[in-house]
Amino acid sequence: MGLHLRISAATLHVLDALLEHPAEWRHGYSVSKQTEIPSGTLYPILMRLEKLAWLETRWEKSEKAGHPPRHLYRLTGPGRALAVEEMRAARAKKIWKPIYSGV
Amino acid sequence: MRSNHVLAGERLAAWLARAVVHLWPGESRHWGLALEAELTEIEGPSASLRWAIGGVMLLTRTWWNHLMRSWLRPAGVPEGGPLAEFAKNATRVPRTPLFVTALLLLASVGLLLTSDSRQALSTGFHAWREDESGQYNKQVLKLREEAKRTQDPQLLAFSALAFSGDNNERLNFAKEAVRRDPSLAWIYSKIRLNENPCCMLHPLDEQGIVALQKWDPENSLTRILAADVIFERIEKAWYDEGMQRTFNVDKVTQQDPNWLAAMNSAFRAPKFDSYQAQEFALYRDIAYRYDIRGGDLVLRIFWNSGEWQSQRQISLYNQLLWDNGDAALAKGKLDDAAALYRGPLIFAEQVLGQDQTANDPFELPFVKRTSYQKLIPVLEKMGRKDEESLAQFQLQSVETELQTASTARRWRWLDADGWTGLAIRSLALAIPVLGFLILICLGFLFLGRSKDLNSRGPSFAFASWGIDCAPLILLTACIGIFAVWQPLALSYSKAMSSPWNSSTLNDLMDAVLSPYAMPASYNTFSENYLNAYHFWVAAVVGLSMIAFYIMLRDILRRRLKAS
To answer: Model-level pTM?
Structure first.
């Protein structure tokens, strides 16, 4: 039994935000601020996307002394394609409309 | 400058985030660190707190998922670690998923919680301790206190019968019970006082027997008990005098002719009632009201009852009649001899016909046989051919009855092969041992879950084997003890739910004493081999074998290293 993504409105918002500048690495807080999704909802989505290999992650050393390294996220190549597909499907069904990426 | 409440809010958020990271399951802790790291970039106490609280919610969700996934792994195998890969083919890592272990344990606990299993276990423990009355004493003491508190006549009567410690207290219970409910007067026939245990003196209460005779004057038993009171009084005086001369029934009849009068009257009474049915009904009533399921209580009551002592009076009087008959025969008084020989016969017929509760199934047929054997030659001499033929036929019937009784009416639990008792004892021992073993194995595996396969010693193989096998064996043992107990429970329930009859006591004996019986082969073994000498021989042989095994293993290891 493979993993699958439950496409909720929150997930579509996160994918939309990540697709706005797909090559850029994003911090969790910046995604949360942009989409207004709280951390308790955002991180399960990110964890799930990573498990499905839609999302790649890396750690970034903080420039400020004493601050811990931060986690960065961006969609993988196949992840982008699948995300666009999911968002188009949601748009066609008129259940959701992109805000940031214009898909 | 930032205000104090801003600082406090941010500190609280930081503390919460740190706690979240600390509590996060090891295999995905980096997500907790990611969440915590963002906190340094968030401005404002309320935003920081919202972020940290989101982390707490995320932690809860992650732990829930972690727990759900952990049910699929064997006990003591962390998620994603190298042990998980070995779980299917290494002897030092258990293989059974935790949910299977948990289900087996839950099923075992569920079975053990049923009252039948608890009863079987408790009986098994008492059987090991050879303590057939352990539960009984506790229950009786509880009911005695309840009787004192409620003054319920049934409970007072029950306490008077069952509690055998303090004579005065028993009599007070009995008097109060009869005062409140006069139909309970029969209990005086069952109360034997513990006056002088060294000399087997257990006299009846004289006043109680007088009251009983007033309540049931037509009953032969009340008259026999009156004779019993006289007999006990004379016997006690004989004990007190130091048992100087021979004690026999002549001494009693010479000292107090009332004994003979009472026995004459008893043998002519229109009815015989041993009150055993009433006693059983009382026990059943108490058992239902106070949810007592142990058969120890009922057996104790029967053993405490005065049947055996009353039979002694009957036997003595029978012997007296036969002796007088012999004397009359010697004098040629054939009619007198026949009448005297018929006395015990008629009484035995009356008891067997009117009362189905005689404790000893042999006593009365033996009486009948002796009487017929004595009567037949007298009838022959008198030339009463028809009566003689009838007596011959009846003697034959009695012989057949005695033969049947010797094979079928003996206590069945004594004849049982004892395997039920052995099974209950063994399972009652195995269940706690297995439960303890499972706890030890679980603790060992969880405490050593961080150890990799190479650093796991043979103890891990034992713990893994234990956790893979022991829960299944435990469940089998629980099913076993439940199943073995069922026939006994049914037997007990049958005896308790049907009206009193001659097989009731046998059913109760089966239900209550079978767990205490052991196979004959075990008894022979225990008599011959379970002693200090054989214990030490077994210990020396066992320890020598272990030492030999260790030595051999070391030699083989050294040779392997050398090669």
So the answer is: 0.62
